[in-house]
Design goal:
This protein has a single domain, classed as Four Helix Bundle (Hemerythrin (Met), subunit A), CATH 1.20.120. The chain has 6 helices and no strands. Helix 5 runs antiparallel to helix 6.
C-alpha cells in the first residue's frame, strides 16, 4: 500500500530540482517540465486514493475526476478536502497553462508545487485512515 504515494514524493523532489535548475538557467523547457512533473505527482496520488477505495484505475482524466467526485459523495470527510477541485486547479495551472501553453511564472509554479505537496499529504493521510478501518 502507498506505493503510488511514495512514487509521487519522488516525482515531487524531481520537480523541485528541475524548477530550480530551470530558474537558474532561465530555461523555459525545464520549467515547463517541472510543472508537468508536479501534475503527474497529483495524478499518481489521486490514483492511490481511487485504488484504495477499490474503484477501477482511471484511464482518462475525466474518469479520474468522476471517481474522485464519487468518493467525495460517499464520504463527507474526504469531500471537505476538496480533492476534485484541487486537482482541477492543478490541471489548469500546471498542465494546461504552463506545460501546454508555456504560461509559466516561476513564483506561481513554486506555489503550485507547495499545493501539490499538501494535496499528496492529504491523500496519504486519507489512505492511511481508510486502511486502518
Amino acid at each position: 500500500m502507498k506505493e503510488l504515494i511514495e512514487e509521487a514524493k519522488r516525482i515531487h523532489a524531481q520537480a523541485i530540482e528541475e524548477l530550480e535548475r530551470g530558474e537558474k538557467l532561465n530555461n523555459e523547457l525545464l520549467i515547463r517540465d517541472a510543472a508537468e512533473k508536479a501534475w503527474l505527482e497529483a495524478i499518481i496520488a489521486s490514483d492511490e486514493l481511487i485504488i484504495t477505495k477499490e474503484l477501477p484505475i482511471p484511464e482518462t482524466h475525466g474518469e479520474r475526476y468522476r471517481a474522485l467526485r464519487a468518493i467525495e459523495a460517499e464520504d463527507e470527510g474526504i469531500k471537505k478536502l476538496g480533492l476534485s477541485d484541487r486537482l482541477g486547479a492543478r490541471d489548469t495551472h500546471l498542465h494546461r497553462q504552463c506545460f501546454y501553453k508555456g504560461e509559466c511564472e516561476v513564483k506561481a509554479i513554486k506555489e503550485d508545487l507547495g499545493k501539490v505537496k499538501r494535496y499528496v499529504e492529504d491523500i496519504e493521510k486519507t489512505v492511511v485512515s481508510i486502511t486502518e478501518r
